[in-house]
């Protein structure tokens, strides 16, 4: 039997901040819930609201401070869920400004920018490039590309899907 590890004690102000950005419907909120481990507890599944609709579900930025994957032995992180860009309402400029202002004023820092893409549409198109460019203009080239990750959701691991890729 492996002994339980003592919880990691981290000053919450030092907790890294992970912002989830991307187009509407890529699964940012579901990913945020997974990173927080709230999907394993149905009573907590309201941290970031989700739906299976093609329409936007997230209208305002929201942050959630938690232990990574919900395990008290893991470090504390702050996850920022953001509204989708290239959304059905055509509000990209306003949404992008709201995201940047939220990170600057409500969160205060940004350690990781995680670009969430739909694996069924894996190309980085002009809309996605505009999203990245806006963050570069707002936070600087080194801050963005030095801390940018790309994650694909809806990624099939079947043999047929691998042949298509």
Specify the biggest β-sheet: 5 strands, mixed
Unreliable stretches (pLDDT < 50, length at least 5) are: 1-12
Q: Tell me the overall shape.
A: globular
Going by helix content, strand content and strand pairing, the class is alpha/beta
Beta-strand fraction estimate: 15-25%
Mean pLDDT: 78
Helix content: 25-40%
**Quick one: how many beta strands?**
5
Strand order of the largest sheet: 2-3-1-4-5
Comma- or semicolon-separated keywords:
alpha/beta, disordered N terminus, 5 helices, 165 residues, 5 strands, 5-stranded mixed beta sheet
How would you explain this protein's 3D organization?
This protein has 165 residues and is of the alpha/beta class. The chain has five helices and five strands, in the order βαββαβααβα. A five-stranded mixed sheet has the order 2-3-1-4-5. Strand 2 and strand 3 form a beta hairpin. It is globular, with a radius of gyration of 17 Å. The N terminus is likely disordered.
Give a nutshell description of this structure.
With 165 residues, the chain is an alpha/beta fold. It contains five helices and five strands; from the N terminus they run E-H-E-E-H-E-H-H-E-H.
């Amino acid at each position: 039997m492996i002994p339980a590890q003592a919880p990691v004690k981290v000053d919450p102000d030092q907790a890294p901040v992970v912002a989830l950005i991307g187009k509407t419907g890529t699964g940012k909120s579901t990913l945020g819930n997974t990173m927080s481990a709230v999907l394993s507890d149905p009573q907590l599944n309201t941290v970031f609201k989700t739906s299976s609709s093609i329409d936007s579900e997230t209208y305002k930025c929201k942050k959630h401070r938690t232990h990574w994957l919900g395990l008290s032995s893991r470090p504390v992180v702050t996850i920022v869920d953001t509204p989708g860009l290239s959304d059905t309402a055509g509000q990209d400029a306003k949404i992008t400004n709201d995201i940047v202002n939220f990170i600057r004023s409500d969160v205060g820092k940004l350690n990781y920018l995680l670009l969430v893409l739909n694996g069924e549409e894996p190309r980085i198109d002009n809309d996605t490039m505009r999203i990245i460019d806006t963050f570069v203009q707002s936070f600087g080239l080194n801050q963005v590309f030095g801390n940018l990750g790309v994650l694909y959701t809806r990624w099939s691991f079947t043999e047929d899907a691998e042949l298509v890729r």
